TrEMBL record:
The protein's name in its UniProt record: Antitoxin
UniProt xrefs under Pfam families: PhdYeFM_antitox
SUPFAM superfamilies: YefM-like
Source organism of the structure: Desulfoscipio gibsoniae DSM 7213
Family membership: Belongs to the phD/YefM antitoxin family.
Highest taxon of source: Bacteria
InterPro entries: Antitoxin_Phd/YefM, phD/YefM_antitoxin, YefM-like_sf
Function recorded in the entry: Antitoxin component of a type II toxin-antitoxin (TA) system.
Entries under PANTHER family matching the protein: ANTITOXIN YAFN-RELATED, PREVENT-HOST-DEATH FAMILY PROTEIN
Amino acid sequence: MNIKEDIRPISYIKANAAEILAQVNESHRPVYVTQNGEAKAVLLDTESYEKMKKALGLLKLLAQGERDIIDGKVLSQEDFFSVMDRGFDNIRP
């Protein structure tokens, strides 16, 4: 992380928006926006943002799966496929 490039005050962002957007899209590093010396926002390129959203979604699924295991909400492989077969049998014409 290059502090000089990755942390910018809001006044700089306002005056140099096109430059900052080009930097973010080229480097794929976030820019931290400060206001009155405090971090207030983060600018990300769209590709990095979408990757982050997908990663968070996967982490949520993993956490839910772990919770289901702890709570005993599991099926054996045989039972799972049996349930799936019955469900698909109802769909077929």
